[in-house]
Amino acid sequence: MKNPAVVNFSIEKGSVEIREIEKPSIGEDDILLEVANVGVCGSDLHQWTSDHSWSVNYPVVLGHEFGGHIVELGSRVQGWKEGDRVVSETAAIINASSPMSRQGLYNLDPSRKGFGYGVNGAMTRFVKVPARCLHTVPDNLPFEQACLTEPCSVAYNAVVMNSHIKPGDRVIVLGPGTIGILCAVMAKLCGGQVAVVGLENDRGRLEIAKQYGCEGIIGDATEWAMKQDGLGADVIIDAAGVSATMKMALQLVRPNGHITKVGWGPQPLGISLDPLVQKNVTLQGSFSHNWPIWEKVLLLMSSGQLDVKPIIGGVWSVLDWHEAFEQMHSGKVVKSVLKPA
């Protein structure tokens, strides 16, 4: 195959396969990127298993965590050259004139469409990218790590920007997936005392969280939450892909505490929010990221302050996408990374 791609072609469960696609044609404000590595995201898995809660433009090439080398530039692109090492943000289509975009919050533009669901993503050899999405990858940062800039930026936004953690805060992260563990890492960088909560089949992932200096808890985290003064944790980061964990968050958070919801959960909540009122708790949603966050994360990664190597469970060829997906879906690895054939 000339350009094999991992394509999600239908809403039906399991509708992902390798297809041969044409090399993209770029516009005057685009670049053509030859993909070096692309991370598998939980959202890729959700589209594969068809339990996602967002609209998808079928058929679409999956993959929005990626980096590589510029091989072609549009006629109006400035500041970049062929061969540059770059990673790309996910907001492939935005309305630059929308009120959100004008504030630099284009991640919250209602018309935003991302790689891997709105437009073709990077689980293939070449991907078309608007030049505004690019960031330089330092030479000392390998692409298999650099391609995780995106989930690291999700975590940075959730923890640093939206949770305002202070040194000494007791922080509980619900859900030891990629985003959960990276949120825990960010909370440690902010000076928090951090516990990560998972289920019995999350033992392997919790061991990785422990490598970052976090406490790993299976099941009930009440004892850890109440340990200091019996009132609960200062901050709860809900990174689980279900809605039911909100009830747990409300139980574990202290009065006047803070809950940040970053995990997607399409199920109805089905609980009373009275504890939110009674405890005077702040509930904050967190979605995506923007340009300055990416710059901060790349600096943390290249300086060694943020090490993503422990969460990478392996690198597979794009042609072996199914194994890479299964390894993540089964919980055997935290993060799978693909490399185009």
In DSSP terms (H or I, runs of 4 or more residues), the helix count works out at: 11
Q: How many β-strand stretches?
A: 18
Please state the structural category. alpha/beta
Q: What is the total number of structural domains? A: 2
Q: How much of the residues is beta strand, in percent?
A: 25-35%
Helix content: 25-40%
| Regions with little confidence, pLDDT below 50 for 5+ residues | none
* Terminal-residue CA separation: 9 Å
CATH topology of the largest domain: Quinone Oxidoreductase, Chain A, domain 1
> Could you spell the SSE succession in H and E letters?
EEEHEEEEHEEEHHEHEHEHEHEHEHEHE
The main sheet comes to: 7 strands, mixed
Q: Nearest-angstrom radius of gyration?
A: 20 Å
CATH hierarchy, class of the largest domain: Alpha Beta
- Any idea what the CATH architecture of the largest domain is? Alpha-Beta Complex
Give the mean pLDDT. 96
CATH level 4 superfamily of the largest domain: Medium-chain alcohol dehydrogenases, catalytic domain
Shape: globular
Describe the structure.
There is one protein chain. With 341 residues, the chain is α/β, with parallel strands linked by helices. It has two domains: 177 residues, Medium-chain alcohol dehydrogenases, catalytic domain (Quinone Oxidoreductase, Chain A, domain 1, Alpha-Beta Complex); 131 residues, Rossmann fold. It contains eleven helices and 18 strands. Strands 3, 5, 6, 9, 10, 17 and 18 form a seven-stranded mixed sheet that branches. Strands 13-12-11-14-15-16 form a six-stranded parallel sheet, sandwiched between helices. Helix 4 packs across helix 5 and helix 4 crosses helix 10. The model has no long low-confidence stretch (mean pLDDT 96).
